[in-house]
Model the fold of this input.
Amino acid sequence: MGVVIGETAEIGADVTLYHGVTLGGTSLEKGKRHPTLGDRVVVGAGAKVLGNIEIGSDSRIGANAVVVKPVPPNSVVVGVPGQIVSRSKPHRATDAPDLNHATLPDLMGVSLTSLLNRMEILEKKLDGHKSAEPHLHAPQAGTWRGEDFSI
Done:
């Protein structure tokens, strides 16, 4: 599996591109149509960065993310379409490359878990959930359990 770098893409210093990365365009018109990556950007395996957008320095793109909007410096991007997360501890130029792909945020999972927990609290305040049909419960210790799934 290779890397695709469009003809008008610009890549800063100390950038890491993993296998299957695409720095692609979104039109066939002449002129700048591919992304610009700042310094010390890490782009995870299979990620797609599309269009004439800028990825700020010290940012990290998660594996298989699809990025179609500009990314500010010192950000992390995950998901499809890519969601931008501000870093709680900014990455500095003197830091080692940020290659720990196992510590990317799960925005949808955290949001869904939070909503399910809030819903369960509200149901208990209303004398419980009276429906005979099973309903989705939030994961416990990171594991989804119960009869909510037909696996």
About this structure: The domain at 1-102 is CATH 2.160.10.10 (UDP N-Acetylglucosamine Acyltransferase; domain 1). Residues 25 and 51 are 5 Å apart (CA to CA). The first strand starts at residue 4 and ends at 5.
